[in-house]
Design a protein that fits this description.
The protein has 496 residues and is an all-beta fold. The chain folds into 2 domains: 125 residues, no CATH class; 346 residues, no CATH class. The chain is built from no helices and 31 strands. A hairpin with a 3-residue loop joins strand 20 and strand 21.
Length: 496
């Protein structure tokens, strides 16, 4: 009966951001990658896994118990096998999401279905991202046990240190977003962080600055030497319910005018990932689930900002128990680099626990050393929506965007999702399609260039919604520069 957890979709004080993202990427000939903000469907059998485990074949009844999950878009099909994830004490295992689990491009999740999960004492489990960088969902028929000293890690990478030859973007945890591009000495071209709350940067600053920290549940701050701090900071996004499962954003890289291009520019830390663990049985945590943002890079003349913390959501029919040694961490990355300087501060993330019987130590700080938005309880909405609210960047300059964009920025051979000709640059129309969003929703469009600053356009009010809950807004005369860019839409719901 996986899939019955219910939670409220609260409308906290503004802004309440339903972060439905469309990541778009463009190049010279302008590339676009549209990451939808999805939730979860699947069909067929799960991919075989390369972890130590026991496989239990389970004949499917004519009306499988999990058919109740249909309202959440996930059912067990004939021939499914249930997998016990059993990580031995002290072992280190890496789950490669490119080949493990079921990727749902509509709901933007990689789903794994287990009979039970046992991560032994002192063991570590990490992930390799799916190309879409989608978050992780574990659906578990029985119990989940994370042993003492064990670590389930979805943290973002630290910013790349260009002074030591580490050029490029830092990689987020699954469901998070990349940190700003680190440039070596002699090359002009660091970037903003990515994601809805990524540090933006500002090219009008006259000299140089350290990168801004990423926002999430609160706003980040600008780095040292920023002349116009407010222009460097991304917005708050998401909500306490974690109904839209999304991780942390990336910190901006350090930046300098071309006159200083003989200096290396430090990269921004990546955002922490996001995970939903939903179990019919208990979820017992003696160890740690960690989705921290990455720290900024050291030893560069102009340092980046840290990434923001991610998201952890736990749901159980039976109970969640966090033992005294247990920790749920969604911390921001560190911002201070001795002898070099400070990037901005980043935000922590969010933690959500839903269970009828849950036990927490009296002195519990769910998120570790940094305060996070934490909510505990159950509610009256399905944990996984069959028809999620979505924003889709559907066309740019009249060119249709691929149905499952991946957000490639040309780094390490990543291809863009859309290429536009030079004639399309400059005053370009960008259409954002909405699904299952109400009228009077405010829609924003963020343009993050691969090796430059980011800008956010809008809001544009969604004035009408047509048949099937579909609507659209058009951003007109959008200035798109040659080279790779990432476009991302976000929505702010109307207040009651």
């Amino acid at each position: 009966m996986v899939g019955f957890w219910r939670l409220p979709l609260p409308r906290p004080s503004p802004p309440h951001l339903l972060n439905l993202h469309g990541l778009l990427i463009m190049s010279l000939v302008l590339q676009t990658a549209c990451l939808f903000f999805p939730l979860l469907t699947s069909s067929g059998s799960p991919t075989a896994m390369s972890l130590p485990m026991t496989v239990l074949p389970e004949p499917q009844p004519a009306s499988p118990t999990l058919s109740a999950l249909a309202q959440g878009g996930l059912t067990y099909g004939a021939g499914d096998t249930q997998v016990i994830l059993n990580v031995a004490p002290g072992a280190t295992e890496t789950i490669d999401l490119t080949s493990v689990g079921i990727y749902d491009p509509v709901k933007w999740m990689v789903v794994m279905r287990y009979h039970s999960v046992n991560i032994g004492a002192g063991a570590t489990v990490r992930f390799v991202n799916h190309p879409s960088r989608a978050p992780v969902v574990w659906l578990v028929r029985n119990d989940v046990m994370i042993g003492q000293g064990a670590l389930l890690d979805l943290s973002g990478q630290d910013g790349r240190n260009s002074a030591q030859g580490q050029v490029g973007y830092s990689e987020p945890g699954p469901g998070g977003f990349r940190g700003g591009y680190a440039s070596p000495a002699g090359v002009f071209g660091s970037s903003a962080g990515f994601g809805p709350g990524g540090g933006k940067g500002n090219p009008t600053d006259p000299n140089f600055y350290n990168g801004a920290g990423a926002s999430h549940r609160v706003q980040g701050t600008a780095g040292e030497h920023s002349e116009n701090p407010s222009s460097h900071i991304g917005p708050i996004y998401g909500s306490a319910s974690l109904y839209q499962l999304i991780g942390g954003s990336g910190g901006a890289a350090g930046w300098a005018q071309p006159i200083y291009s003989n200096n290396p520019l430090g990269g921004g830390g990546a955002g922490g990932g996001a995970i939903l663990i939903a179990a019919d049985g208990r979820i017992d945590i003696h160890g740690e689930i960690r989705a921290n943002g990455g720290s900024n890079a050291g030893n560069s003349n102009f340092v980046g900002g840290p990434g923001s913390g991610g998201a952890i959501r736990l749901a159980s029919h039976t109970g969640v128990e966090l033992y005294p040694t247990g920790k749920l961490r969604v911390n921001p990355g560190n911002y201070n680099i001795p002898w070099v300087g400070n990037g901005g501060l980043a935000s922590s993330g969010r933690v959500r626990v839903e269970a009828p019987l849950s036990t927490f130590p009296p002195s519990l700080t769910l998120s570790g050393e940094y305060p996070a938005e934490t909510s505990v309880g159950d509610s009256n909405l399905p944990a996984i929506r069959d028809q999620p609210a979505r924003l889709i960047v559907s066309s740019i300059g009249g060119a249709l965007v691929t149905a499952d964009p991946q957000g490639g920025l040309g780094f390490n051979g990543e291809a863009a999702d859309l290429t536009l000709q030079q004639a399309a640059l400059g005053n370009t129309d960008v259409v954002v399609q909405t699904e299952n969003l109400p009228a009077n929703t405010m829609v924003y469009l963020r343009i993050g260039r691969a090796r430059a600053h980011a800008v956010e356009l809008g809001p544009i009010l969604l004035t009408s919604v047509g048949f099937g809950g579909v609507g659209s807004v058009t951003f007109t005369n959008v200035d798109l520069s040659a080279g790779y860019s990432a476009l991302q839409a976000r929505a702010v719901l109307p207040q009651p």
